[in-house]
Amino acid sequence: MYIVQIASECAPVIKAGGLGDVIYGLSRELEIRGHCVEIIVPMYDCMRYDQIWGLHDAYRDLWVPWEGGAVHCSVFCGWVHGRLCFFIQPHSGQNYFNRGHYYGALDDHMRFAFFSKAAMEFLHRSNKRPDIIHCHDWQTGLVPVLLYEIYRHHGMGTQRVCYTIHNFKHQGIAGPNVLWATGLNNDAYYYHYDRLQDNFNPAAINFMKAGIVYSNYVNTVSPHHAWEARYSDISCGLGHTLEIHQGKFGGILNGIDYEVWNPEIDPLIAFHYGSETFSEKAKNKKALRERLPLREEDKPLVCFIGRLDDQKGVHLVHHSIYYALGRGAQFVLLGSATEPGINQWFWHEKQHLNSNPDVHFELGFNEELAHLIYAAADIIVVPSNYEPCGLTQMIGLRYGTVPVVRGVGGLVNTVFDWDYDTEHLPEERNGFVFYQPDQYALETALGRAITLYEKEPATFRELALQGMAYDYSWNHPGEKYVGIYEHIRHK
Ligand code: ADP
Questions:
Q1: What digits encode the pLDDT tens for the residues 356-410?
Q2: Average pLDDT of the chain, as a whole number
Q3: Is the dihedral of CA 475, 481, 487, 489 positive or negative?
Q4: Yes or no: is domain 278-468 CATH 3.30.980.10?
Q5: Where are the domains of the chain?
Q6: Ligand 1: residues within 6 Å at CB?
Q7: Nearest residue CA, atom 8 of ligand 1?
Q8: Pocket mutation for ligand 1, best pick of 365, 386, 414 (most atoms within 8 Å of C-beta)
Q9: How far apart are CA 141 and CA 116, in angstroms?
Q10: Do residues 215 and 146 lie in contact, with contact meaning Cβ atoms separated by under 8 Å?
Q11: Are 432 and 405 in contact (CB under 8 A)?
């Protein structure tokens, strides 16, 4: 099959979180399975150009219909660690992708509506006719609308769309100017409960709802989160839309790229190791301690890696630091906050704990350091409020770092409690799980992990090895996505 991924990220060149990893990892898996994959992303000024090979212009004069006129764009093309990516660069005064950041601008809805329109115009003009267009999250929710309402009438009648929701929290809410700008016009038609109208704000259109309504298949990124989306408030108002479209909605667990995340060959860690050579992992702990620095003592090293925001259970992250220190463990935090309040809070904590030799805060985004922390730590905490899939627990498992997680979303599908899991045999268990979103619940799980490390090191090591034995690569998810593509292609 010929598959085009349209997304706002592709790791490692554009990565704000898990979405970037998914675009890269899934595309690679699809290629391994013999499919042809191309990726279309915006050409941001702040992306990592050092991660692109052979960047050249692929389509020089793309005129994208926009706001009643047309915007002149260039489309560049290059390889991101072997994946073929097209980068769309508009030449207009709005500087949509020259903002120094990927998200967070006041006109984000216009920026990504434009990107969706430009991606479709590029496919149309360059005569690319993929079997499947796979788009992701609110940023590209308008793609299937544009395909069905406009481009279908311009020779794109056989393309089918798979739409993957990575986070229901951000849905892309906009006013009628987006309809006018993209050429969809006809407000009365789109401002309809069955189409783009937001379920709660009748004056707004909702990009994510658009993606759900117009795509041939919709999924979120784990089976448990798909269930939560239908039966809890986690879908942030889209529950009824999902119920209406339940026949084409499901959950497919993300994978992680086993080439990128592989402690046996990872170039970013100090010492390579695998399950056969697990004792080498301890050398990474020593290397990390020297680098940060942290004191060298026989005590467990607990870590957190991720965005510091409400989704990630930031209060519980904070509590886990003090709890771990109180229990005589060490803590390393690698995280970035976009909210100024949370940012200031953690900078304050960093200064407050500055002289403590058992804790280190690295505030910012640091891909290289992340690898070393996964390899060095004994325990990784993921106390999320909600978690569509979660990659950090899977990466932790791959690196023999025992996860302590809250039982929500994809964490339920990937981590099985050492003491209390009832569905897995003891030799299949791989971490510690708590359920209530409070400090006491976190302590019961993190406490059990620290106690096992201290009192029964051999058993703790066994648990880490059991985690390493899991296959959370793209192999299974890749097969599932191919099945979905085949299914919608023949409809
Ligand atoms: P998200 O909700 O942000 O998508 P995921 O767990 O799905 O969370 O994916 C997070 C990805 O981003 C992982 O690959 C993780 O290692 C990486 N990551 C998160 N924060 C940072 C950071 N501050 N520095 C480096 N990598 C990070």
A1: 999 999 999 999 999 999 999 999 999 999 999 999 999 999 999 999 999 999 9
A2: 97
A3: negative
A4: no
A5: 2-255+475-489, 278-468
A6: 17-19, 21, 305-307, 334-336, 365-367, 370, 389-392, 395
A7: 18
A8: 365
A9: 8
A10: no
A11: yes
Query: Which residue is listed with tokens 């120094």?
Result: 100
Under CATH, which architecture does the 2-255+475-489 domain have?
3-Layer(aba) Sandwich (3.40)
Which tens digits make up the pLDDT trace of 413-437?
A: 999 999 999 999 999 999 999 999 9
CA of residue 370 to ligand 1 center, whole Å? 9
Q: Answer whether 2-255+475-489 and 278-468 agree in fold.
A: yes
Q: Which backbone phi and psi does 259 adopt, to 5 degrees?
A: -85, -45
Task: Report the nearest atom of ligand 1 relative to the CA of 382.
Answer: 6
The residue contributing the CA closest to ligand 1 atom 22 is 365
Pocket test for ligand 1, best of 15, 168, 256, 305 (most atoms within 8 A of CB): 305
Q: Which residue has the tokens 């308008």?
A: 142
Distance from C-alpha of 196 to C-alpha of 56, rounded to nearest angstrom? 37
